[in-house]
Write a structure and sequence with these properties.
The chain has 8 helices and no strands. It has 168 residues and is an all-alpha fold.
Length: 168
Amino acid sequence: MQIANYVRGKVTEIFIVGSVTYVTFILLGLQYSALLSALVGISVLIPYIGAAVATLPIALVAYFQFGWGLEFGQVLIAYGIIQALDGNVLVPLMFSEVVNLHPVAIILAILVFGGVWGFWGIFFAIPLATLVQAIIRAWPRDEELQVSQEDPMEDEPLQSARGEISQS
C-alpha cells in the first residue's frame, strides 16, 4: 500500500513540478518551454541528481536564446528556486503524508542512503525508509513478548483460590 502511495506521490510531484516549470518558462519567454518542463518533471524521479542533469539543457537553451544577459540569469534563478522548493518543501511535505514518514525522516533517509549507496541510495531513499519503518512497526516490543510468554490458562482468581486451599 505504501509503495503504491509512493508511486502516486511521484506522479503528482512530476505533474506539479512540470506544470510550475512550464508556466515559469512561458512567463520568461523561453523557447521549448514544454519540452524543457517535461524534462524537469521527469528529472524529479532522481532526487537532486536529476535536477543537476536537467540544468544543462535549460542553461544551453537560455544561453542560445538570450546570451549572457539579464534574461539568462532570470531563467536560471527561477529554475533554481523551483528546484529548491521541490527538494526542500514539496517532497518532504508531500511524501510525509503519502508514505506516513516525518519530513525530517525523509531528508535523513536521502542523506543516509545516498551516503551509503550513492546514486542508487538517493534514488531508492524514500522506499527504503518506508521499508525500514514497516519493519520497525512490525518488530515485537517487550510488552508483546511478555504477554506472549505468560501462560494464558492461569488467571489471578484461580491462583488466589489455590493459595487459600494450601493455607487451610
